[in-house]
Design a protein that fits this description.
By secondary structure, the protein is α/β, with parallel strands linked by helices. Helices cover 36% and strands 14% of the residues. The longest helix has 18 residues. GO terms for molecular function: 6-phosphofructo-2-kinase activity; ATP binding; fructose-2,6-bisphosphate 2-phosphatase activity. It is an enzyme of class 3 (hydrolase).
């Protein structure tokens, strides 16, 4: 019954129906399915069969990379209620200076955020999980995320895959400096931000591919908190919210804000918690045109 409530009652078939009535109807569906169900058992066919939401997985004649990846993905899915919390690192020195990339430490306001974060997270994750054996807080290997997570009393894990998008030759520059030194690159990135790759660096497309193992691990986890970077969290957010790739680079992920996503069978619930500590606004809106004369903001994006 609990599984029906958690999964099937979110179906469009039952929108607006009384939960008890919808559950009774679905149980009747199950009885009908059981009378007609024939398991796939042909030994000459390629298939993956999931039993009881993945408690048992039967695969047959799986060949090649794509089929293997599909099976791996299916094996990591589960229907357990969980929350994925994520937050950018506290405001950094580079954020204040309007520089992108780098490995700077937190600003004084960023340090305040690192001290305020544990209280907010405790309200939602609770103290019963403090002794969990699996890491519940993931950070990148960069100092600003590690510093932000330093006061959280949860098991932690540093992921190289969570490091910020590599800005290549533009690392440590402001957008004004990029527009002056590399005007063609500046314009090209505004024209196609998802596919544009910094010289010697990465594109959003590259980051999406880099994050595949992180996404797979998130699918099999229970409650988790990620302290990450703007581009990284945009990619993770877009995955769970099913956003198109042209919107992905422009998702607003503000500083000093915790975002909670609760995956559901037919979507994802979202809540945002803003901590009352000022920070610079690093969001760059989508350009109205593809011209290199697009106004240059003062903060990183």
């Amino acid at each position: 019954m609990e599984n029906i409530r958690a999964v099937k009652l979110q179906s469009p078939d039952y929108m607006g129906l009384d939960p008890e009535e919808a559950a009774a109807d679905f149980r009747e569906r199950i009885r009908h399915y059981e009378s007609l169900y024939q398991p796939v058992e042909e030994r000459d066919l390629t298939y993956a069969r999931l039993v009881n939401v993945g408690s048992q997985v039967v695969v047959n004649l799986i060949q090649g990379y794509l089929q293997s990846r599909i099976v791996y993905y299916l094996m990591n899915l589960h229907a357990t209620h969980r929350s994925i919390f994520f937050s950018r690192h506290g405001e950094s020195q580079f954020n204040v200076e309007g520089k992108i990339g780098g490995d700077s430490l937190l600003s004084p306001r960023g340090e305040q955020y690192s001290h305020a974060l544990p209280k907010l997270i405790m309200q939602h994750l609770g103290s019963e999980n403090l002794t969990a054996s699996d890491p519940m807080v993931w950070t990148s290997t960069m100092r600003r995320t590690i510093q932000t997570a330093s006061h959280l009393r949860y098991p932690k894990l540093q992921w190289k895959a969570l490091d910020e998008l590599n800005a290549g030759v533009c690392d440590g520059l402001t957008y004004e400096e990029i527009a002056e030194r590399y005007p063609e690159d500046y314009a090209n990135r505004d024209n196609d931000k998802f596919n544009y790759r910094y010289r010697g660096g990465e594109s959003y497309r590259d980051v999406v591919l880099r994050l595949e193992p992180v996404i797979m691990e998130l699918e099999r986890q229970h409650n988790i908190l990620i302290i990450g970077h703007q581009a990284i969290l945009r990619c993770i957010y877009a995955y769970f919210m099913n956003l198109p790739r042209d919107e992905l680079p422009y998702v607003r992920i503000p500083l000093h804000t915790v975002i909670q996503l609760v995956p559901k069978a037919y979507g994802c619930e979202e809540r945002r918690f803003k901590v009352a500590i000022d920070a610079v606004d690093t969001h760059r809106p989508k350009p109205a045109s593809s011209s290199a004369s697009t106004p240059i903001p003062n903060a990183t994006g």
